[in-house]
UniProtKB/TrEMBL annotation:
Organism ancestry: Bacteria, Pseudomonadati, Pseudomonadota, Alphaproteobacteria, Hyphomicrobiales
Protein name as annotated: Radical SAM protein
Gene3D superfamilies per the UniProt record, alphabetical: Aldolase class I
Domain of life: Bacteria
NCBIfam families named among the record's database cross-references: rSAM_STM4011
InterPro entries in UniProt: Aldolase_TIM (IPR013785), Radical_SAM_STM4011-like (IPR047771), rSAM_sf (IPR058240)
Amino acid sequence: MAPAHLDILYRGPLSSCNYACPYCPFAKRRDSRETLARDAAQLARFVAWIEGQTARSLGILFTPWGEALIRPAYRAAMARLSRLPQVRRVAAQTNLSWPTGWLDECAPERIAFWCTFHPGETPLDRFLGRCAELDARGIGYSVGIVGKREHLPVLAELRRRLRPDVYLWVNAYRDEGPHHYRADDLALIRSIDPLFDVNRTGIRSRGLACATGESVISVDGDGEVRRCHTVKARIGNLYDPDFDAALTPRPCPLAQCRCHIGYAHMPHLGFREIFGAGLLERALPPSDAPPQGATG
Ligand code: SF4
Ligand code: SF4
């Protein structure tokens, strides 16, 4: 039987980007025409599958390797999905670099964005202008930054200038080892993102409950289903008529879970309660006081 709620993390083959962030392997990468065509065809198949899923409530988060929303196919897919009654939420990770006119075709209460500001790739004013365009349409979003030490001044400015109730998260920068941050850096980051330490230390997850593989799945362009992006074992194929039989509770097999996309689904952290409807796009409810509950 189809589960009542299913969240899908979708990642097709697209791995190109218009930005050149020095901390990213997909910087200025280009996809061949063939890859883009295959990606668009697989996306269309995924959208068609969602259209047929009228017996359950679906959340969808597009988590591309690169930047998907510079591609019209992804904009059209999100607009279409946002208008389906069975879609609770359709969200995407994005650098917010695209023109926003297409959002007028979307159901604003069901579309949302996980927006990352990349210093050096775009001026802060332009990024904030795009946030204001989301605000004007009543579209939910979170904003975040890669927590390199050199980004901390702009992080503080971002906090001052963003709408106060928009959650500003910081992803720990790990490439320079555990001693990247000084005590005053940590104090600043924690004052802005009270959940930073969960991301910085990760969660010791082996053997613990995690909803992935049961009510949350990772799906690639071929429809191959894994429990999450990190655990590579295949559990089925979305387009197999019997695929629901693969959905079952499973403890985490890995030592550590280090990304919000994953640990957000570990019930003992309470993120589903803390983030509520904004869990997929990492957005806290607007009226919430800063979260204090979750610990690593
Ligand atoms: S915007 Fe994202 S995908 Fe593109 S280069 Fe920067 S980090 Fe990588
Ligand atoms: S805890 Fe993280 S790594 Fe483990 S199964 Fe869940 S999402 Fe995957």
